[in-house]
Design brief:
Helix content: 10-25%
Strand content: 5-15%
Bound molecules: iron/sulfur cluster
Order of helices and strands: EHEEE
Strand order of the largest sheet: 1-4
Largest sheet: 2 strands, antiparallel
Shape: globular
Number of strands: 4
Radius of gyration: 12 Å
Structural class: alpha+beta
């Protein structure tokens, strides 16, 4: 699911420690920074969501499973 990025999202995700990226997912391969399902995950990694260079959209993964 893709939704527009907004500054309020950034504030709230830090305030509530919202987890939605691969690094917090049970299907993440930490050494390879890849997805064990082989999904393209460039837009699901934390480094894609830096407040200094925010993306235009937030891409949520339907397979995300909190680790
Ligand atoms: S299932 Fe989705 S969120 Fe989880 S590691 Fe794979 S691409 Fe990332």
């Amino acid at each position: 699911m893709r939704v527009p990025w907004h500054t309020s999202f950034e504030v709230q995700r830090r305030q509530y420690r919202f987890c939605f990226t691969c690094e917090d997912c049970a299907h993440h391969h930490p050494e390879a920074t890849s997805c064990v399902h082989g999904f393209p995950n460039a837009e699901h990694l934390q480094r894609h969501y830096t407040p200094e260079d925010p993306p235009s959209d937030i891409l949520f993964c339907k397979e995300f499973e909190l680790a």
